[in-house]
Amino acid sequence: MSSSLPQILLVDDTVANLQLVSDFLMKAGFNVLAVKSGVQALKIVAITLPDLILLDVVMPEMDGFEVCRRLKAQEETQDIPVIFMTAVTDRANPSYKIKGLKLGAVDYISKPIQLEEVLLRVQTHLQLRALTQQLTEQNACLQQEIRVRHQTQQILQETERRWRSLLENVQLLVVGLDWQGDVEYMNPFGLGLTGYTSAEVFGKNWFNTFIPSSDQPQLKQTFHELLYHNSYAYYQNSILTKSGEERLIAWNNTVLRDITGAIAGIMSIGEDITQRQAVERMKNEFISLVSHELRTPLTSMRGSLGLLKMGVYDNQPDKAKRMLDIAVTDCDRLGRLVNDILSLERLDFGQVTLVKEVCDVADLIKHSVEAIDAIAEAAGIAIQVTPLSAQVYVAPDTIIQTLTNLLSNAIKFSERNTTITVGVQHQSDCILFHVTDQGRGIPTEHLERIFGRFQQVDVSDSRQKGGTGLGLAICRSIIQQHGGEIWAESTLGSGSTFYFTLPVYGQTSPSSLL
Q1: Nearest to 29 by CA among 8, 54, 10
Q2: Which residues contact 246 (CB under 8 A, 6 or more apart)?
Q3: 3-state SS of 78-135?
Q4: CA–CA dist 184, 206 (Å, integer)
Q5: Closest CA to 240 of 214, 217, 265, 279
Q6: Rounded Cα distance, 174 and 128, in Å
Q7: What is the DSSP letter of 504?
Q8: How far apart are CA 388 and CA 371, in angstroms?
Q9: What is the DSSP code string of 248-307?
Q10: Given CA atoms 185, 186, 188, 192 in this order, what sign does their dihedral have?
């Protein structure tokens, strides 16, 4: 492998992680050195300096924090970007990430590892390091040229042009502050992100203009320590845009000095990580929810089968059969849960291709009612349909799935000898579907929340009614991908109505719906 490739040192005591990440990064064009301990990592760094280190935190013999501390204590290794990899979440231990950042790490990657996320963060921090090195080298070169007076005005102008071109075209936020914290420079990307014009920014105090008031004292102290103690070269904080929106920025800071060596200010290069943090939070919440929902049926199955294995009910065949029935029911529920999770993830990430065609609304409703009719009859519930002949451009199976889910829910929460009504209305710009039951109703505060993942009005519903808590989330994803909306209205004790809309065929061209 060519030595010109960026070299990544990967440190993880889990062999599977080493192999998985190493293979992926090498395929992406990196030279990867993989070791299983902090001690081995320090030996490697003493021989060859990598461009970036991916470092596990929890390891035997020497943890990642100690490895990072030793690297940052050495002049020749202190500038190597270190990205921690850990399974400890912010929620489980809020001080964990702060400790790593104070030691000099530039980023965190949460386990389980997402390979695409690893690649993006590695690329970003290599770009940040290269840009910082270029800025430092250009600054040193400029000072040297001025000192020896060998530089012509033409060279100065060309250097300035390259400097400006570099800063003004990079897709990162670049801010220059003087030693008092006043803005001397902000690149076009930064102006676009914050919503300000250059005239509104230059000369304004950075902290008073861009930092939330609650964060200003701490960040002013951080700025002072960076200037005079070269601390906090890497940190994250929120900034305010002109509209008042908060954006989370990860900063890489460089102290600038004039030709006499006096402190002139700071050049900061920032990456907007607001969306990444939101995705990270959603991922952690999703993993937590899925873990809980999977454990519930597994625990029940383990308990039932464990009692049978111990022979507790050897002489009680009726109770033994009941234990088997419970295990089978929970096994079925677990299967539905896994299938629904996979379906929802494929829909949300666009991995399901919607093959659309012109369909008659009456036919879609007919197929949906036929699919659920036997269940309704067994439950003693009548289904009344108000037909309407209209055309929509949809993936028919997914719309039938949506109607079937809504009908199934209506049956679950309706009493015997009641009626479910399915109707359609032709509105000016869409077709409005509704499924109305005479069940127990839904509290107002739950009407929006029930369309989220694993959300039910009553936590016992998933056990008593057999649901997974994902049906309505799947319905919402399907309807949104068709360009429609879905919502619910309800009166406690009287019943609920679920509505969704689909664009009228002819008003929206088929090509725009693909």
Answers
A1: 8
A2: 212, 238, 239, 240, 274
A3: CCCCEEEEECCCCCCCHHHHHHHHHHCCCEEEECCCCHHHHHHHHHHHHHHHHHHHHH
A4: 10
A5: 214
A6: 11
A7: B
A8: 19
A9: EEEEEEEEEE-TTS-EEEEEEEEEE-HHHHHHHHHHHHHHHHHHHHHHHHHHHHHHHHHH
A10: negative
3-state SS, residue 487 = strand
Q: Compare 507 and 141 and report the one with higher pLDDT.
A: 141
pLDDT at 505 over 80: no
Whether the ω angle into residue 112 lies within 30 degrees of 0, i.e. cis, is yes
pLDDT for 340 equals 56
Residue positions counted in the chain: 514
Global model pTM greater than 0.85: no
Rounded CA separation 198/193 (Å): 12
Q: What's the number of CA atoms in the CB half-sphere (13 Å) around residue 328?
A: 6
3-state secondary structure of 444: helix
Going from the C-alpha of 454 to that of each of 80, 127, 342, 406, the distances in angstroms are: 43, 40, 14, 16
Rounded Cα gap, residues 356 and 231, in angstroms: 58
Q: For 293-429, where are the E strands, in sequence order?
A: 357-360, 382-386, 391-394, 419-426
Distance of alpha carbon 138 from alpha carbon 111, whole angstroms: 38
Cβ atoms within 10 Å of 492's Cβ, excluding its own: 11
Query: Using one digit for the tens of pLDDT, what is the confidence trace for 351-376?
Result: 456 678 899 999 999 988 887 888 88
429-432 contacts, C-beta under 8 A, 24 or more apart: 429/503, 429/504, 429/507, 430/484, 430/501, 430/502, 430/503, 430/504, 431/361, 431/388, 431/390, 431/392, 431/501, 431/502, 431/503, 431/504, 432/499, 432/500, 432/501
Residues linked to residue 360 through DSSP beta bridges, in sequence order: 391
- Pairing relationship of beta strands 430-436 and 419-426 according to DSSP bridges: antiparallel
Residues facing residue 180 across a β-bridge = none
Which H or E run contains 501? strand 495-503
Q: How far apart are CA 498 and CA 436, in angstroms?
A: 7
Residue 420 has pLDDT above 90, yes or no: yes
* Distance between CA atoms of residues 241 and 248, nearest Å: 11
